[in-house]
Design goal:
With 402 residues, this protein is mainly beta. The chain contains 4 helices and 26 strands. Helix 3 (278-287) packs antiparallel against helix 4.
Length: 402
Amino acid sequence: MRKKPIAGLLCLVMLSAGCGGMGDASNQVREGQEANRPLHPGPSTFDSSELPQLTHALSVIVGGFFLPDSGMVLVERTEVYFVDMASGEAKVFGREGGGPLEFRRIHRALRSPEGIALQDNYRLRVVFLDNRGEFVGDTRYNTVPFKGSLMGAPPVAVHPDGRIVFGDREGKNFGSYRGRTWDPIEYLAVDSAGEVEVVAQGKGSEYYYEARSSGSVFFGHSTLLAASPDRVAIAETDQESIGVFGWGGGEVGRIPMPPAVRPSRDQVRAVREYRAGAPSRSLERLSRAPNEVPAVVLEGLADLATLRPDLDHWPVNDLAPPIDELFVDFDERLWVRDYHFTDQDSVTWRVWDMERFTPLFQVKLAADEELLDARGDVVLLRREDELDVPRAVISRLEPAAP
């Protein structure tokens, strides 16, 4: 399987120097209260827990999308529910199994030109469905020559021509490398025949390797990507702006980053405590479904939970990254999330027009609310009830109280 020469979005690795695009969007920012007005979700107009077919079906919500008509789609581990919001009826696709219309585990869901694309992680394939919930086809990627691991190269977007774009992070050899470094990332477009094209490269993530463990630098920088059918937004979080590119290559504009924030001592302590508890949290979560997780994985996590790396000497950045997530909604607007500290009870999303590079509004969500999609002035959110059971809700955005 031959890798094609690097093309297209190569200039993103030179964001700090520019690539001859439209210039810094800070000169195009629309000033005034309208662009920066804070909004928040109002009362819900839809709640999946109120539909009999969905009440006990959504033990996990992998993703959710608005559809071109009055419908939406909700993705579970092995089933996909196409919901008509007007009638409340839901059509289900898939079940657990090894057949072409079945899934072992849906790990990620993406919007595609025809509908949605679903990563069946354990079977190393991506399944395509149209907006009616009909099977279109699948692409297997078990033979793709990733520099990192197969399981560690997630699909991050679907190319307008239908190819899947994977983020391939090149990690260091755990047994031989020590110290702080960047693990670079390549974005690979993979077609149904297994042909691979490198469409972009980035700095990747700041990592630290020591004798017993490895992991990201505290408040470390990374490369983020989100895509629409026409545009690709790529953020190197140590830069002052987000680059917006055409799929054919070449920068078309910039979106400024929000200000970076210096973590407090309490926030540094909180992130250390959170990192120390990560193996125990993973063990607890995976132990709830022992039949789905190999015993050797659970045993390895149990061993990790007993180890405590020297987090007091783990490298910490003086300034946190300004953002930690990018997302493109149904209306092809770019949502940029301010960096969220573990001790904060809310998150702020800044919403941008990707054509004019102007700010539209800001949305504040609770820290435990996950943004799934947005359309017009409504948002599709994942929430949990008092028993930690997830549900999908739709709310109209309202002005926040002064």
